Amino acid sequence: MIFQTWLQELSQYNLLPLFIFFLIENFIVIVLSVILAKIIENDNTKLNKQDRKWVFSTLICNTFITLLGFELYRLGILKIDFSPSLFSIITDTLLLVVVMDFFMFCFHFLAHYLKWFSPIHKLHHTHVETSTSVYSLYVLHPIETLGFGIIWLFSITVLNFNYLSIIIYLVLNLLYGIFGHLKKDIFPDFWYKNHATKWISTTKFHSDHHKHQSHNYGFYFTIWDKIFKTIF
């Protein structure tokens, strides 16, 4: 397995080179997200001066989370399934998306209702309608960024996921983060009416959360908000 071999090669390095490597990796992810956003809505993809420090702090926090995850793998605490089973890839991907969406729904709900957490989360809501730009995705307080990261590491440590499922999830998570913070709703009209798609989150769904903060806490699905009666 190429991916497994690559991880083994990285295991030869100490923390500083690994931190630099993961810093570059996470920086590339931000650049790619900005490029995609510019393709979709170029005029709206602008970084405000006051947000630069928060984008940078999110980059640093995500790098620490990546490094921590790798160390957990290197120590044998975080285990990854490297089998090429198609069934495993499909089921693991679906499970990972559902598990992460539920945990992030709970975390997001608490971010609004805990007295000590709410002021921290308000930083993200300085982008009132998510119409500032895709950079809104990275305007997070470090405590919140690390919180999401811990949820991620906890999920993939407790459950043994296929490595391709982890990669697929990370790609989907990035895409949904971008789509959820666009000014333009890229989802077609039928998406909101079709029984097979209306339970999947959209740009408008998250935009409505920024306008009505006591609703729409889900990330990928609307089902949790429907169950807990927080849907707008």
Relevant terms:
single chain; mainly alpha; 0% strand
Radius of gyration: 18 Å
Helix content: 55-70%
- What letter string, H or E per element, gives the SSE order? HHHHHHHHH
Low-confidence stretches: none
Number of helices: 9
How would you sum up this structure, described in words?
There is one protein chain. This protein has helices at residues 2-10, 15-41, 52-74, 86-113, 118-121, 142-158, 163-179, 203-211, 223-227. It is mainly alpha-helical.
Secondary structure layout:
Elements: H1 2-10, H2 15-41, H3 52-74, H4 86-113, H5 118-121, H6 142-158, H7 163-179, H8 203-211, H9 223-227
Question: Brief description of this entry?
Answer:
By secondary structure, the protein is mainly α. The chain has nine helices and no strands.
